[in-house]
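Good morning C.,

I know you're traveling, so I'll keep this short. The sequence:
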Amino acid sequence: MTRMRFSGPFLDELAELDESAEARIWEKLELVESFPGVGSSLLEPLLVRAFGRGCLKVSAVGYDVIYERSSEGDEDDRGNGEGDETVSVLGIIKQRRIR
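The tokens, ready to paste straight into the viewer:
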């Protein structure tokens, strides 16, 4: 089961978008919640510096939504288990700003 966490900067940036863009971003985050590994790990150097190497991004209506995954819970010695996964949504960046 995936648990979603939203950072303050993400929520602040989301509040500044129009309703259509906000709705599309929530649609993408529903996909991320179902399939946390769906995002791209190919990040521009600016995003790596701002958010770290372990982050992923998904694109939505001219924005990149940046998030990171972490696992917690019961795992055996080989890393197998039924642990919960947490997705921390860190921010939204205009694609034009980083390209």
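Safe travels,
E.
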